[in-house]
Amino acid sequence: MDNQVIQAILDRKSIRSFTGAAVDRAQTEAILRAGMAAPSAMNSQPWTFIAIDDRERLDTLADILPYAKMLKTAGVGIIICGDMSKALPEPMTGFWIQDCAAVTENILLAAEALGLGAVWTGVYPNMPVVKAVCDLMKLPEHIVPFCVIPIGHPAGKTMPKDKFDAARIHWDEF
Ligand SMILES: Cc1cc2nc3c(=O)[nH]c(=O)nc-3n(C[C@H](O)[C@H](O)[C@H](O)COP(=O)(O)O)c2cc1C
């Protein structure tokens, strides 16, 4: 099907190798705007962001994250956080996780659409990593780091994976 949005979704892939070139703030803002356009339960928007483009800070963040070493060559790293002061009351509180996941995918797609590379690196619910990010960034109690997205100029060419599997689709009944 010839559709630009669907094509951008199919083109997205994790990029873990960057040139080290800077990502300009206008691009980062455009990416964050796409992130914040995500749906959220009852439109609660329980999120907040730390965008890091200072080289020294990117390196320090890479040092504490075992699976996000690519921050060392990224132009910007976005920490997507859940804001518990905006999360819904129980039993819906946990929807903040899906809300932040929707933001994350929007951000990955926006980076791809701008010709940049990005990768989702997980933080929550890996509690030792959550704590390491909270401590490093001196986050207040109601802010929970959800994931870190290194974004940069791709160092090489990476092909998206074709994951379509017709056998996963159950029409009308399981
Ligand atoms: C919740 C979650 C956590 C992830 N954590 C990491 C990570 O810590 N480091 C990493 O390099 N990739 C991480 N990834 C990226 C996946 O490895 C990647 O999406 C998967 O291999 C599929 O490849 P693709 O993104 O190129 O389609 C994570 C993805 C998700 C959804």
Task: Describe this entry's structure for a reader.
This protein is α+β, with helices and mostly antiparallel strands. It has a single domain (16-153), classed as NADH Oxidase, CATH 3.40.109.10. The protein has helices at residues 4-11, 25-36, 55-64, 95-113, 127-137; strands spanning 47-52, 76-83, 117-118, 121-122, 143-152. Strands 1, 2, 3, 4 and 5 form a 5-stranded antiparallel β-sheet that branches. The radius of gyration is 17 Å and the shape is globular. The mean pLDDT is 97. Bound molecules: flavin mononucleotide. Flavin mononucleotide (FMN) binds at residues 13-14, 16, 67-68, 119-122, 161.
Overall number of structural domains: 1
Largest sheet: 5 strands, antiparallel
Q: What share of the residues lie within helices?
A: 25-40%
The overall pLDDT average reads 97
Gap between N and C termini, in Å? 26 Å
* SS element count, helices: 5
List keywords for this structure.
174 residues; NADH Oxidase; 5-stranded antiparallel sheet; 5 helices; 5 strands; 16% strand; binds flavin mononucleotide
The gist of it:
The chain is α+β, with helices and mostly antiparallel strands and 174 residues long. It has one domain (16-153): NADH Oxidase (3-Layer(aba) Sandwich), CATH 3.40.109.10. The protein is 34% helix and 16% strand.
